[in-house]
Every structure is written in C-alpha cells, then in structure tokens.
Amino acid sequence: MEFVQLQIAKQEDFYHQLDRESELRAAIHKDALADAAARHNQVRTDAEAERDYQIRLAEEQRQAELRQRQERERQLIVQREESERKIAAARAEAAARAERAATEEREAKKAQEKADQEKAERERQARIAAKAKEEEQDAMARRKTELERKAKELARDAARQALLMAPSTERLDPTTTPWSNRTAEREKEHERYLEIHRNLKKLRQSVEELKDREPQLKKHLGNLKREIKKSIGQLTEDKIKNKGPHAAVLNALKQALALFPQPTVSLAGFTVSPSLQKAQAPMILVFLLSHLAKSAIAQFVGEVAVCPKLADPIGTIVISCFAKQDLRINGISLVDILLAKMHRVCPPFFGIYGLENTDEGRDRLGWWRVEPNGPFIGEQGHLDRMTGLGAGFAALTLRNFEKSPTPNPIPPFVFWEALTSITNLPAGKVSETHLMLVKSLLTNNEQRNFIFFGEAGKELMRYAVYEFPKKAPKGSVAAVVLSGLSEVLKKENKLYL
Q1: What are phi and psi of 43, to 5 degrees?
Q2: Alpha-helical segments (H) within 398-484
Q3: Cβ-proximal residues to 460 (8 Å cutoff; 6+ apart), any chain
C-alpha cells in the first residue's frame, strides 16, 4: 500500500515537473512571440518613418522645383518689364532731348534777343551815366576850384587877422556884406535838403504800408534793417574786426537790391543832383540807405560823443557804401540822403546859425527836443551831441579816395566849407554850439587836414584855435576848451600851430 502511494506520488511529481516545463516553454514561447511582435512593430515603424521621409523629401523637391519655376517666371517678367521700361525711358529721353533742344533753341534765341536789348540798354545807360558823371565831375571840379580859391583867400585873411587882430572883423554886419549873400544861398540849399528829409519820412511810411501788402517784403525787410543797425553798432577801433560788420552792411544792401528791384521811386525828391531828377531807383534801396544814415548818426550822438575815435570806422563803412558802384544810380551816388539827415541834425555844418537863447535859434542850431514840439534837452546833452556829430562829420568828409576807382561821394572840400562857414561867423552869431563843433571837427583830424589842405589847412587850424574863440560870448566854457586844443596838439602830437 505504501508502495502504491509512493508510485502515485512519484507519478504526480513527474506530471508536476512536466507542467512546469510546459509552462516554462510556454512562457519562453510567449516571450519569443512578444519579441517578434516588437521587432515587427519596429520594422513597421521604421518603414513608415522612411516612407514619410521619402514623401516629405519628394514634397520638398516638388516645392523647390515649383519655387524655381516661379522665380524663373518672375525674373522673366522683371526682365521683360525692365526692357519695356528702358525702351519707354529711351523714347521719353529722346522726346525730352528733342523738346529741350527745341526749348533751348527758343530760349537761346530769346536770350540773344534779350542780350542784344540789354547791351543796347547798357550802352545807352552807360552813355547817359558817362554824360551825367562828366557833368557831375565838371560841376564838382568847378566847385572845388572855386572853394580852393576861396580857401586860399580865407587862409590869407585868417593869417592877416591873426597878425593884426583887426577889430573890424568883430563888427561885420551880415546884412551889408558878401557874407549875407552866401548865407542866403546856404539857406536855400538847407531848405532843399530838409525837404529831402521830409520826403524820406514819407517814404518810410510808404514802405510800412507796402510791407503790410507784400509778405515777402515783410519777411526780409526787418532782418535787413536789424543787420545794418547791428553791424554799425559792432564797429570798434580794430580795423580787422571791422571787416565782418563792413561786409554784413554791404551784403544787406546788395541783397535788398537783388530781392526788391521793384517798386521804384523818382529820385527828384531824394537828391539835389540835376542828373538824377528824372531817374528812378528801387524804393527799398533808398529806404535802407536812409536807414544806414540814420543808424550811423545814432552812433555819432551816442557812443562817438563819449569816444570820438569810434567815428572813423563808422565814417569808413558809411561812405564806402554810398561810394559803391553797385549802389549808384547812373553812376551817381545817393549821398544826398545822408547829407539831408546831417542837415536835419546839425545845420551849422552848412552855414546855418541861430541864437541859443531863443527856441527858433535852438531849432536852427540842431538843438534836439525831448519829443517833437516838446522841451529841449539840457545844455550838456546838446554839447555832447555836437561833440559826436562833429567827430562824425569829419569822419564822413575826410576820406581819402586817391586809390579808389570810384569818386568820393563827399569830397574833403565839404569839410573845409563846413569849418570855414562856422569860423567865418561874425561876432555875436557865435555860440557854444559852434565852438564845440569846431573843437570836434579838429580833434584827431589834424593830419588829414594837412594832407588834404596843406599850409592852408594849418592856417585855418591856427585861426580856429587862436582867433575864433575870441568871437565867443563872454564866459564861454567851449571857447576855453577850443583854445586848449593847441596845448593838446603840442603835448600829444608835437604839433605847434
């Protein structure tokens, strides 16, 4: 029984062993199947990836070929358009050249006609200007000769007076001597210049009205005026530094002439020159020349009154502007504009006299008022103005044009005539104004006086310094100052009168 059970147990172990082996083989088989399935899946995945890659590669190649084809087509279109554009441009250029050639031919013809007309007009104007200049120079030469003759006579008379101290000179009666005849002539001339001054004031009003109607004029005129005034105010005793302001003033005037050649005004109301009575000039040029003169005079009565040596650079720039050929009309300077303003501010330069103790006399002497028709400025203020104006007038009139191609607009004999018209006044007519003017005219100008007038100039200086003060009112301070000028000349310039 036990043996049977042992056999059964062994048999059961055998079967269990078979089952385990069968299960192991089944597990191995299952793992093999799983591994095979995995490899199959990997192969399929790799195949699909390769297929997708090939598809993408084929698509990219197709797209690249498509882009290349499109680019070739685009380039063909661009080339065709460029070719068409070049053909059109060539045709347009040919047409334009033809048109330009025709236009240039027409313009050349017009230009030639205009040039011929301008040449004829220039020749005509040149003949007129030459004739006017010749007449002006002849008149000037005659006047200069006459003045030189009178100067020599005055110098001889001055020397004789200095030696003899003739009391008859103190008793000249202006109503019964040739002096009164010359005075009448000067009064008439003075009134003519005052009329010019009034016309300049009317012109200024006309320019203001025109500026309101002309935007271009309004845009530029203020700048041109400011440039002139600023440049005059920048002048110093340094000639090198003065070149900039000098050029700026000339440029402003030339710019005005270029920008505003129209409208024009008749010069009959702005000059005493017979040759310009029927001439025309640009209105803005006349206006700015007047503004230049006004700015210079403002400097004379301002800074020059304090520092008389500043008068010379101002006189240089102002006279050079009035002398410029480009700013002349028919070859003649418009300097009468400047002289008209000098007649207004200082009549004694031109032989006009008056009594300082009357309102009328003060007006005639150029004694300034605080406001139009208002009270007069103080005596010291008046004498300061005369100091500046005297130095300024000398700076304007004692300019050497010996090396200049253009004639001097205010020759030195105008200085001589101004000085002699004052020093030749009879006693009783001489005032502090006259004495201060003579002192200012002579100070710093002795060398030029000798250069232009020689020995006669020295005689006139001697008479002005030593004899003229004797005609002064009793207790005159200005007479003492003028008499002291001889000592100043001795000390500073080693000049003995």
Answers
A1: -60, -45
A2: 413-423, 432-442, 446-462, 477-483
A3: 151, 154, 155, 158, 416, 419, 420, 423, 449, 453
**Beta-ladder partners of 281:** 265
| Single pTM value for the model | 0.66
Rounded to whole angstroms, how far apart are CA atoms 291 and 256?
Answer: 13
| Pairwise CA distance, residues 383 & 373, whole Å | 20
- Show the beta-strand stretches assigned E in 234-387: 264-266, 280-282
- What's the rounded Cα separation, in Å, for the pair 337 and 314? 16
- Residue of 192, 220, 217 whose CA lies nearest to 344: 192
Q: Is 266 helix (H, G, I), strand (E, B) or coil?
A: strand
CB 367 within 8 A of CB 356: yes
b/e 336-372 (16+ beta carbons within 10 angstroms → b): bbbbbbbbbbbbbbbbbbbebeeeeebebbbbeeeee
Look at the block and give the residue holding tokens 């790799």: 46
C-alpha angle 237-243-246 in degrees, rounded to nearest 5: 95
Section 143-162 average pLDDT: 51
409 forms bridges with which residues in the sheet? none
Compute the C-alpha angle 147/347/319, nearest 5°. 65
**pLDDT digit string, tens, across residues 2-39:** 777 888 888 878 888 888 888 888 888 888 888 888 88
Give the pLDDT confidence of 248-289 residue by residue, as tens digits.
Answer: 999 999 999 999 999 999 999 999 999 889 999 999 999 999
Q: Compute CA distances 197 → 218, 294, 366, whole Å.
A: 24, 11, 14
Instruction: Output the CA–CA distances (angstroms, integers) from residue 440 to 2, 307, 446, 451, in the order listed.
Output: 172, 11, 11, 18
CA distance 345 to 363: 9
